[in-house]
Amino acid sequence: MIKQNICIIFTLTLFLTSTYAQNPVNQFDKDGLRHGFWTKNYHKTNEIRYEGVFNHGKEIDSFKFYTLSGGKSVLSAIKVFNEKDSIADVTFLASTKKVISEGKMNGKRFIGKWTFYHKNSDIKMIEENYNNEGLLEGERFVYFKNGTIAESAHYKNGALDGESKWFSEKGVLLRHTHYKEGELDGKTINYDALGNITSEGNYSNSQKTGVWNYYKDGVLTKEINHTTQEVISKKE
């Protein structure tokens, strides 16, 4: 029986050694490119930094990335690559393993639609879109934790451009304005928590221009021409 156990252990050891030899890690191909399974630790530690598979220098399948927390490696991101291009489906994770955000990346650039979540929650906090240059493009929404919209805005080449709105947690519109190439431009209306207009007028290059009307409890109290800084009317 002892001899039989020794024989089994010896055979298993040979099998594991052979398997490891057939699947070495951190190898290069004949052109000096990373190939096969790779894993790296943080400098002068035994704590893992990343692990994944290369195909002649190209990342493929799932890569796992870790951050150091209390001196220990904690999974912080998963990137799933394909063999066609450098685009990856990416998920960023908190130390609690809850998803922080998810979307696509091309290298270090965010592209396409990205979704961010409230802390330690599955509830969406932000939805935004990026162009191929990694700049905000199109609609962007921010949500309260109760699911209602806090902000809506439109971007072009990374700058606010078009209509923007802000809301209270109860869904009341607080501000409705417009941007052009990152600057306030055009009509803006501000509201109080009850939905009454508090002021309205126009902007040009983020400066108030022309006649602005100011209200209290929905009643017009003052008119100012901000181009000339002239008070047109004022009611006490």
Q: Could you please describe the fold and organization of this structure?
A:
- The protein is mainly beta and 236 residues long.
- It contains one helix and 19 strands.
- A hairpin with a 6-residue loop joins strand 8 (109-117) and strand 9.
- The radius of gyration is 29 Å and the shape is elongated.
The ordered string of helix (H) and strand (E) elements is: HEEEEEEEEEEEEEEEEEEE
Largest sheet: 19 strands, antiparallel
- The low-pLDDT segments are 5-21
Question: What structural class do you assign from the helix and strand content?
Answer: mainly beta
**What is the arithmetic mean of pLDDT?**
91
What secondary-structure arrangement, pairings included, does this model have?
Blueprint: H1 2-22, E1 27-28, E2 34-41, E3 48-55, E4 58-69, E5 72-81, E6 87-93, E7 99-106, E8 109-117, E9 124-130, E10 138-143, E11 149-156, E12 159-167, E13 173-180, E14 183-184, E15 186-191, E16 197-204, E17 207-216, E18 219-225, E19 230-234
Antiparallel strand pairs: 1-2, 2-3, 3-4, 4-5, 5-6, 6-7, 7-8, 8-9, 9-10, 10-11, 11-12, 12-13, 13-14, 13-15, 15-16, 16-17, 17-18, 18-19
